[in-house]
């Protein structure tokens, strides 16, 4: 079946618009931005124990266990000290603890240089005996 020229033109325009929308979506899809992401793995402990990052980098704590774990930052963070967060609740101020579900993650981006210490509890029912050694994230300004 042969379509009239006007129909072909409309169909071509629709395909071009659709292709343009797909390209635009691909350009802003998660994981394609230029923010460096650093990964901390939680299994029978925390790896790495010390992580050096720059202001604005994303830090992701991945729970690779089959049960939830709890992370607690040892210094209180204000909303101005964090430029992005996933999994930490904020009701007026940023909560310094988060529960990470099995195979899930939480993340933070620090907006100021400094040193952040934290602990992870591997067994929520036994917090006294399941706390990992204190780990540290050292945040520095990006060299110019």
Automatic annotation (TrEMBL):
InterPro entries: Cupredoxin (IPR008972). Keywords: Signal. Residues 1-26 form the signal peptide. It comes from the Bacteria. This is EfeO-type cupredoxin-like domain-containing protein. It comes from Nitrospira lenta.
